[in-house]
Amino acid sequence: MSDLIQVRPKTEGWKQKLGPDGKPLLMFAEPKRGKPPIHLVDLTAEERAERLKEAGVQAFRAKQIAAHYFTHYTSDPSEMTDLPAAGRAELVGSLLPPLLTEVKRLQTDNGDTIKFLWRLFDGALVESVLMRYTGRITLCISSQAGCGMNCPFCATGQAGLTRNMSAGEIVDQIVRANAVIAKGELGGSKAKMKDAPERVTNIVFMGMGEPLANYDRVMKAVRTMVARQPEGLGMSARGITVSTVGLVPAIQKLADENVPVTFALSLHAPDDELRDELIPINSKWKVDEALDAAREYFDKTGRRVSIEYALIKDMNDHGWRADLLAEKLNARGKGWVHVNPIPLNPTPGSIWTASEPAVQNEFVRRLEKAGVPTTLRDTRGKEIDGACGQLAAAE
Ligand code: SAH
Fold first, then answer.
1. Ligand 1 — pocket residues by CB below 6 A?
2. In this structure, are residues 135 and 198 in contact, taking their beta carbons and an 8 Å threshold?
3. Which atom of ligand 1 is nearest to the CA of 243?
């Protein structure tokens, strides 16, 4: 690996507003748009009861409807024969309005990976990716239509933020995926799965959007995922990974939520000089602040955190950067962190490329030699443009 060549990030194909420095503006607030229909997931238990009362329906019906949604993965009133026929369609429609319309589905040749393109009520497009592994099924979900964080290597970042997704829209991605699995449409080897009916076991907030920029709705969705059936999906918090560019105050808030999700920080560079350009939010919260917040997350939750590092040829893959990363992590203690390098998935038309395999291996070797647990991640779904950073939702 040569430590001499240094390629600098360059923005390509940006569609959003530029600031005085010629770079795209970071977007936290969403442009004004209509709100998606309110869904069962968006309501508290009290609000659900209130709605039923208004409709003149007994309160226990909310539980029946929730059971259909969270355990049978259906929003179709014709399947809910335990509800009185009179007014059933209206009642179900008011609590389970359709949120996601399937526009396109791409599946890998061996069938174990499916990418869904969904249209939201206002025409906004989002994607999710369903992946079967041995003993688990992971769904990569979106939390925003578009993203305002402008990371130049990420396809989603190039069109800016359209809007935040509602908690209902976030959770519905899982319910719809579970329905697809229940119908037997996800291929791949089922060996080693338990006897229980198959469903999504792991969630990664690594689809479109910056989850911590849509904090309240993402947390409401997470609470619904971990709530017991039939009030929620009954998933384990540790199987849910929240990945962020490093919004420090939100990381601190997340650490105090008492929902021990797995936390991932998209670092991609250990030095501010490069990270300022690669992860534009670094202009606000620096590498050391983001790492301190990650360490604090471990201290408060006991959950080992992940550092995401996309290896980009001659840009961030230098040996000295591996050493500097190890130094910064070790300076904050041992046993609290795990590094996940992943070869860059070039966005279509990009001049950037993934690091050479030998360079990837050297990067990993240096981290491991310094005692930092490191796992090179695979890039599932590449052939269907479903790999990390390729979710652009262009039709
Ligand atoms: N906004 C959040 C989550 C969405 S992206 C975040 O940034 O963490 C999920 C992961 O994919 C992040 O680590 C992101 O940096 C990474 N990623 C984005 N574009 C990529 C690309 N082209 N190749 C590989 N990983 C990429």
1. 149, 153-154, 205-206, 210, 243-245, 266, 308, 310, 342, 344-345, 347, 388-389
2. no
3. 8
The whole-number pLDDT of residue 201 equals: 97
CB 120 within 8 A of CB 100: yes
Predicted pLDDT of residue 225 = 98
Tokens read off for 202: 């792991």
pTM of the model: 0.94
Nearest Cα residue to 382 out of 348, 359, 341, 352: 348
Residue nearest to atom 1 of ligand 1 (CA): 210
Query: Has 140 been annotated as catalytic?
Result: no
Q: Which two tokens stand for residue 259?
A: 């929902």
Nearest CA to 294 among 235, 243, 367?
243
Chain centroid to CA 19: 27
- Distance, CA 388 to ligand 1 centroid (Å)? 6
**3 state SS of 24:** strand
Cα separation, 53 vs 80, whole angstroms:
20
Q: Which are the contacts of 75, defined by CB distance < 8 A and separation ≥ 6?
A: 68, 69, 92, 96, 98
Nearest atom in ligand 1 to the alpha carbon of residue 268 is: 15
CB-based contact 328:267 (threshold 8 Å): no
pLDDT value at residue 1: 54
pLDDT, position 379: 76
Phi/psi at 321 (5° precision): -75, -35
Tokens standing for residue 48: 């659900």
CA-closest candidate to residue 339, choices 312, 381, 313, 370: 370
The predicted pLDDT at position 15 comes to 74
Ligand 1 pocket: which of 308, 339, 360 to mutate (most atoms within 8 A of CB): 308
Phi and psi based region of residue 271 (left: phi greater than 0; alpha: psi -120 to 50; beta: remaining): beta
Strand order through the sheet with 337-343? 101-107, 113-119, 125-133, 136-140, 202-205, 240-244, 262-266, 305-311, 337-343
Q: Which residues of the chain have pLDDT under 70?
A: 1-2, 11-13, 32, 191-195, 349, 386-395
Q: Is 127 a catalytic residue?
A: yes
What are 172's two structure tokens? 């519905």
Structure tokens at 327: 């130094």
Helix (H, G, I), strand (E, B) or coil at 319: helix
Query: What's the gap in Å between 209 CA and the centre of ligand 1?
Result: 9
**What pLDDT, on a 0 to 100 scale, did the predictor assign at position 383?**
73
